[in-house]
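Sample pair:
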Amino acid sequence: MRLLNVETESRICEIGAGPGHLTWALAQAGFTRLAVLEPNTHYVSGTGYLASRPDAENIRFFSDEQSWYDDSERYENIITHNCIHHFRSIGYVAACVRAKMLPNARWFAFREWYADTAIETHERLNSHPYALKYGVYEFPYSGPHYVQAIEAAGFTLETILPAGYADNVLAEYVPEPKLTHTDQLLELCLAYRPALLAKFFRLEHIIDTCTPAGIRLFTRPQLMVFRRAELGREHTPGHKTYV
């Protein structure tokens, strides 16, 4: 996030945070204006443990959407981690989230659940650890589907970090990630030419659509960064009107 010049004093909210590990890590890294929207307040699986820690005192906790919307704070950065695929309508939820974002704010979407074919979707649905035990089916989507749904709600894709970067450290548990020369080049692009990585995403999608190449490094990114597009006076169904 610092490669993209996110300031430590900027207002950040993580949506669907689970236990809140990512937000806690940001607090330890010096970010000071943090919030979490997570309905699960259980001590282990939810935010209960994090809320009890003295080093999390600068984190605001919201356990329901209404209290979050009733709060006057709007955010410069939204974070989701392995979260968007849970939304039954990605576009609708993206529009609702957008209403809590300041003009020109960004949405950092880490580690999504991908599938590009019907067969792959079926396999992923049935291989999910909660499928047989709890009957919970989490639908994966293609990278372009996420982007199209979110952009239609009033965002633009600003940049991405592709699969493979730093041993997939943003998508998997990697205790000691190693940076290759290619990874260092990607970091330079992220810092100085972020739009170039978004162009590679769109180019790979065109190639994948028109040929049987099946190359999906940029279209299955570890991170997608969206910028809030400014559309004039707007209304989000069921929520407040903002300019």
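The chain has a mean pLDDT of 91.
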